[in-house]
């Protein structure tokens, strides 16, 4: 594989390892970093600050660092970066990295580590678990490539291969920097090209796919997150238009192709709209682009989609008609098909979006809130002032978000971890410099909601809606009648002021409408709006989802 050095070799001499890593990150697409220092990571943090190569943001708890970096990467469609210390720091971030791996997010994990000169003294070093490489072994399971720098000659190449793996596979990678090497001289990290495209495989695959699509009576394009990860949304939109294909997203892919005139809606199996379900499940040629074959995407479909008969393009390969093309770069595949497919004669078909479920028209009255009226209030605000990027946590807030108009959304739709919403929202704001909307349940807010305290320092101003039902309601829906799902009344909104934001509590539609309008008018600070919901009051989407899962598990 060819490589070119960045920058020129004369500049290489002036580099330290720390600086080379930072320049490499930037060259491979990182735009900022998130972290929490610790003594093993202090030398690298010093380089981060003194070099000024990338802006950095510190948060309070490592899971949040991972979620924020993951969300920033998802928004950019390129590398997110999390910098932590050895042991207590890195191991605290395991769940967030697992989420990024499962959901194919390109997250670079950088951990400080004991210095080379400290190893082999026969002493246990603080933060060490069992052996000096225990941490690396743990991260092997959560990342697609790992590098522990021990030799400064090898380092530039090792780092380049690591960052290229992150970029090309869109999965997390793990880099360990011994603290006594960070300030040592090191060459620049070379820029490695993406893996070569095997044109023969790609064009044969493109031809076969096109002939299947042409022969079909009701082809459908189902899109998933990989399309965003590899920056292919525009290409997919052009392809859908060229072939006049209806486009449906998976649950995880919600938010993709929001601008495309071919977009119809989101497939949620039995939990979603029946017209979309019918269209997807009876399609005689379902082209699945970049979708995860996972239970949240397909598990509530009574297995009505026979994935062996559909065309599945993901993970750099395409499967159809009981055979597989491998490797297939998705961008090249789409470009080939576009080049081969003539423009359809006549007027293009007109596709009408179909909502997951009807939302009520907002009546700003004294009725108690329910998830439907929260969504109606939000939708009204979006209709008047434009869409905001959304970060959602797991819980009914995510199912409710399916009722909003399609727009940019980051959420742990497959891995389903709680605690993602607030830090992810901060990551979104750092990445795209737009005010985000954060949707979060009270249970999830108890995990990472405190990170809002960083808004004042960084000038962030998210609008946060807490679905405050004093309950782990999603679990209660699956398993009614248990008292361990009860949560206490934490009055989160009262803390907002102490943290440099504004708080409000709303019990009715009219109160929420007011609070949201004031939040939208005030861009100076974050707004934390507690939406009080009675236990048992859930969105129709969650109700259908739980009923479908129950029905299926009964067989
Ligand atoms: C890190 C298990 C899935 S949903 C849920 C739990 C505990 C309740 C969520 O309560 P919340 O939202 O946030 O108040 P709502 O709408 O249901 O009331 N630990 C982690 N992740 C998951 N998914 C769980 C436990 C879980
Ligand atoms: Mg709750």
Characterise this structure.
With 555 residues, the chain is an alpha/beta fold. The chain folds into 3 domains: 4-191, Thiamin diphosphate (ThDP)-binding fold, Pyr/PP domains (Rossmann fold); 199-340, Rossmann fold; 371-552, Thiamin diphosphate (ThDP)-binding fold, Pyr/PP domains (Rossmann fold, 3-Layer(aba) Sandwich), CATH 3.40.50.970. The protein contains 22 helices and 19 strands. The strands form 3 sheets. The protein has a 7-stranded mixed sheet with strand order 9-8-7-10-11-12-13, with helices on both faces. It has a 6-stranded parallel sheet with strand order 2-1-3-4-6-5, sandwiched between helices. Strands 15-14-16-17-19-18 form a 6-stranded parallel sheet, sandwiched between helices. α21 (509-521) links the parallel β18 and β19. The chain is globular and about 65 Å long. 52% of the residues are buried. Mean pLDDT is 92; it is low at 1-12. Bound molecules: ligand TPW and magnesium ion.
Q: Classify the beta-strand content into a percent band.
A: 5-15%
Residue share in helices? 25-40%
The end-to-end distance, rounded to whole angstroms, is 52 Å
Note the overall shape.
globular
Q: In total, how many domains does the architecture comprise?
A: 3
Question: Any idea what the CATH superfamily of the largest domain is called?
Answer: Thiamin diphosphate (ThDP)-binding fold, Pyr/PP domains
Unreliably modeled segments: 1-12
Rg (CA only): 24 Å
């Amino acid at each position: 594989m060819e490589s070119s050095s960045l920058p020129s070799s004369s500049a290489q001499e002036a580099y330290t390892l720390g600086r080379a890593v930072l320049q490499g990150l930037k060259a491979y697409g990182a735009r900022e970093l998130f972290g929490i220092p610790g003594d093993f990571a202090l030398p690298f943090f010093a380089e981060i600050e003194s070099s000024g190569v990338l802006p950095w943001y510190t948060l309070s708890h490592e899971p949040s660092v991972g979620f924020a970096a993951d969300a920033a990467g998802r928004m950019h469609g390129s590398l997110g970066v999390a910098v932590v210390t050895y042991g207590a720091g890195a191991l605290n971030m395991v769940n967030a990295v697992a989420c990024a791996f499962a959901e194919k997010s390109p997250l670079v994990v950088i951990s400080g580590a004991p210095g080379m000169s400290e190893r082999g003294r026969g002493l246990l070093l603080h933060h060490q678990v069992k052996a000096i490489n225990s941490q690396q072994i743990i991260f092997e399971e959560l990342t697609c490539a790992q590098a522990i720098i021990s030799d400064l000659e090898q380092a530039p190449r090792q780092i380049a291969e690591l960052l290229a793996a992150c970029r090309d596979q869109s999965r997390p990678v793990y880099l360990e920097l011994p603290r006594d090497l960070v300030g040592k001289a090191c060459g620049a990290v070379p820029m490695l090209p993406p893996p070569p495209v095997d044109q023969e495989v790609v064009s044969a695959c493109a031809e076969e796919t096109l002939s299947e699509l042409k022969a079909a009576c009701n082809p459908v394009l189902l899109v998933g997150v990989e399309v965003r990860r590899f920056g292919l949304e525009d290409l997919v939109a052009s392809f859908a238009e060229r072939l006049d294909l209806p486009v449906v997203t998976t649950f995880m892919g919600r938010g993709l192709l929001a601008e495309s005139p071919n977009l119809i809606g989101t497939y949620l199996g039995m939990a979603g709209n029946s017209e979309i379900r019918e269209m997807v499940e009876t399609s005689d040629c379902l082209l699945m682009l970049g979708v995860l074959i996972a239970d949240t995407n397909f598990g509530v479909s009574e297995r009505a989609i026979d994935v062996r008969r559909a065309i599945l393009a993901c993970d750099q390969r395409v499967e159809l008609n009981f055979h597989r093309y491998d490797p297939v770069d998705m961008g090249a595949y789409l470009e080939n098909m576009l080049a081969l497919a003539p423009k359809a004669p006549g007027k293009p078909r007109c596709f009408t979006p179909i909502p997951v479920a009807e939302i009520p028209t907002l009546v700003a009255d004294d009725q108690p809130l329910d998830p439907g009226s929260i969504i109606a209030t939000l939708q009204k605000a979006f209709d008047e002032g434009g869409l905001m990027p959304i970060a959602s946590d797991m819980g009914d807030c995510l199912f409710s978000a399916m009722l909003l108009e399609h727009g940019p959304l980051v959420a742990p739709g497959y891995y389903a971890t709680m605690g993602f919403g607030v830090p992810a929202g901060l990551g979104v704001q750092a990445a795209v410099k737009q005010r985000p909307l954060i949707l979060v349940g009270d249970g999830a807010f108890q995990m990472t909601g405190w990170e809002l305290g960083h808004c004042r320092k960084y000038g962030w101003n998210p609008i946060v809606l807490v679905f405050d039902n004093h309950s782990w309601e999603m679990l209660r829906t699956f398993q009614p009648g248990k008292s361990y799902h009860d949560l206490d009344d934490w009055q989160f909104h009262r803390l907002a002021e102490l943290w440099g934001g504004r708080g409000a509590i709303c019990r009715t539609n009219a109160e929420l409408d007011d609070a949201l309008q004031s939040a939208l008018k005030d861009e100076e600070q974050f707004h934390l709006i507690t939406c009080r919901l009675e236990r048992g009051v859930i969105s129709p989407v969650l109700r259908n989802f739980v009923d479908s899962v129950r029905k299926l598990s009964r067989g």
